Amino acid sequence: MRLQKIAPEYAGRVRLRQRAFPLEVYGGGPPDRAELELEIWLAALQEPAAVFKPFGAEWPTTTLPAFEAAWCARQQDETLGDEFDLRIRRAFFAEGRNIGKREVMLELAREANLDMERFTRDFDSAAPRAAVLAEGRLGQTQYRVRGTPTIMLSDGAKLRHPIAYPKIQDGKILSVGKLPCCGEACYAATREMFETALRLFAFNA
Q1: Strands 172-176 and 166-169: what pairing?
Q2: For the chain, give me the number of helices (H) and strands (E)?
Q3: pLDDT mean across residues, the chain
Q4: What is the 3-state secondary structure (H, E, C) of 161-181?
Q5: Which of 97, 98, 116, 96 is nearest to 106 (CA)?
Q6: What's this model's pTM, rounded to 2 decimal places?
Q7: Which of 40, 46, 92, 122 sits between 20 and 30 A of 162, alpha carbons compared?
Q8: Is the pLDDT of residue 205 over 60?
Q9: How far is the first Cα of the chain from the last one, in angstroms, to the nearest whole number?
Q10: What is the CATH number of the domain that holds 110?
């Protein structure tokens, strides 16, 4: 959310590119409800602008349809695709919708005013799944991605977003790292990541 907030300030100078990394394929499995319910309060503390609500009765057994739908949206327009990606996250975290269902992805696409004929055609093809798996495989094999979010420069150097992470064991939070910032106070650190990308470009030019 912060990256998308700051990115327009660097339009034409830094390109923010999102790649899929489905944890259920290349990590520890699909979303763990118990673990996310433990972590969600910490995310809410760190980003007051984000909306979080208790999860609904339905829980996604897969997130691949969400990754595939975001890929389809980006085929229409990259900026629109990034906005749609955020829309999917909002549907999950703030609205309790099951993002593992095809019909939910179609509902979100209609709400986002996407070209539904093209979206449905792409979504029903084999192309989105192949692209999502290829991006995840690239992240795992070439860039050594282990979790999300992972932020890196074009040369593969990883950047650390200012986030406090909890230590969870046996279904309990044992400790939480120091909170580096909160809300808008984190924007300076987010801008510094873009500035780092600019310095890399200047160095390689």
Answers
A1: antiparallel
A2: 9, 4
A3: 90
A4: CCCCCEEEECCEEEEECCCCC
A5: 116
A6: 0.89
A7: 92
A8: no
A9: 30
A10: 3.40.30.10
Dihedral (CA of 10, 90, 168, 33) sign: negative
| Total domains in the fold of the chain | 1
Structural domain that includes position 126 = 2-204
Let me know: does 6 contact 191? Beta carbons within 8 Å: yes
Rounded to whole angstroms, the Cα distance separating 162 from 179 reads: 8
List of residues 6+ apart from 172 with CB closer than 8 A: 38
Which CA distances in Å does 161 have to 25, 61, 150? 24, 28, 8
List, in sequence order, every beta strand (DSSP E) within 84-159: 151-152, 158-159
Q: Identify which of 186, 172, 182, 190 has the alpha carbon closest to the alpha carbon of residue 44.
A: 182
Model confidence pLDDT, tens digit, residues 9-45: 999 999 999 999 999 999 877 778 988 888 888 888 8
